[in-house]
Amino acid sequence: MKILHLIQKKQLRGAEIFTCQLAQYQINSGHDVLIVYLFDGDAEMPVSEKLLIPLNGQKSKRWWDFKAYKALNKIISEFAPDIVQANAGDTLKYSVLSKLLHSWKQPICFRNASMVSNYINSPITKFINSFFYRYTNIIASVSKSSMEDLNNLFPSTTPKTKVIPIGLDIDKINFTPSKYETKQFNIIHVGGFTFEKNHEGLIRIFDRLLKKNNSHLHLIGDGPLRKKTEEKVEKLNLQQSVTFYGYVNNPLDYISGGDIFVLPSIIEGLPGVILEAMFCNIPVVAYDVGGIKEIIKEDITGKLIKKNDEETFVESIIILMNNPELRNKIVSNAKALIELKYNNYKISDEFISFYFKALNDDNKII
């Protein structure tokens, strides 16, 4: 089978990283795969550079980027994929508009990696999204919560939606010695500095925690709200206890050396960094948003906190700090879960089977 993946840009974000990993597994299984990135990006992606093709789109013109729509049509005409998979961001917009303008016939699989309702803020936005979903043949939602959210908002997507979670390259994960000072608890967070990741709330949580326990917060990632977060750290005089690392090529090196992984996001689909932490034997404390409750069960595979309950978030971190028996139980259960359900070998096969649904439906829009 020939598969063409679309990603937003070359960036170390969950949607792009997983797409590259999925593509590599599909290649390993004998399929022919290319990855097209819409916009400029300079991150080193976890896949061979020869598989990556720039579309040279312009984000400021994404609603009328006719040159890029035409370029995508040319790539599809030359590569002749059996299916086109749009992986979050603007990829569905570009694939649908290119298809409508240039009449290519390949079915579109959309990977729904978040909670759509959080981004629908007006009737017009809902109408526009409904239009794009109409031209998908199949939709792979990253979690049951993401699927139900999409289906409730757009009932017409229900018959063509299936839950296919993200997975991990388990065989490629190496455990590295701790990078951190071992006389303190090292709290790890990985994520882009965007409003969804709630760094402002994270700093408030850490400020409370630091008043009770000797800890250090390690922030891996970059993004538009980083400067604002740094200013918040300075305002609270936390500079000696918070380290900003920016983008890193291998976040696992930073995750695996930590003591506790925290994710107080206010919007998530099913974040891969949680799976990575769990596989690396790092206990996770996270808000109950999106599909997180599908992998974190309270005191079984992690600590699950009601959204915006910062006091309980702090208390849960302290409980894990002071209870090694509970930590050991949680990390053992969590790793077993990842090995059983979130291995990319299995996930890749699920996607291939799902593609055949689109092909067997004679490319009709469901």
Description:
- The protein folds into two domains: 2-167 and 344-360, Glycogen Phosphorylase B (Rossmann fold); 171-341, 3-Layer(aba) Sandwich (Rossmann fold).
- It has twelve helices and 13 strands.
- It has 366 residues and is α/β, with parallel strands linked by helices.
- The chain has helices spanning 14-28, 66-79, 91-102, 123-134, 144-153, 199-210, 226-235, 251-255, 272-279, 310-322, 324-341, 344-360; strands at 2-9, 32-39, 52-54, 83-87, 108-112, 138-141, 161-163, 185-190, 215-220, 242-246, 260-263, 284-287, 303-305.
- Helix 1 crosses helix 12.
- The chain is 40% helix and 17% strand.
- The chain is globular.
Topology:
Blueprint: E1 2-9, H1 14-28, E2 32-39, E3 52-54, H2 66-79, E4 83-87, H3 91-102, E5 108-112, H4 123-134, E6 138-141, H5 144-153, E7 161-163, E8 185-190, H6 199-210, E9 215-220, H7 226-235, E10 242-246, H8 251-255, E11 260-263, H9 272-279, E12 284-287, E13 303-305, H10 310-322, H11 324-341, H12 344-360
Parallel strand pairs: 1-2, 1-4, 2-3, 4-5, 5-6, 6-7, 8-9, 8-11, 9-10, 11-12, 12-13
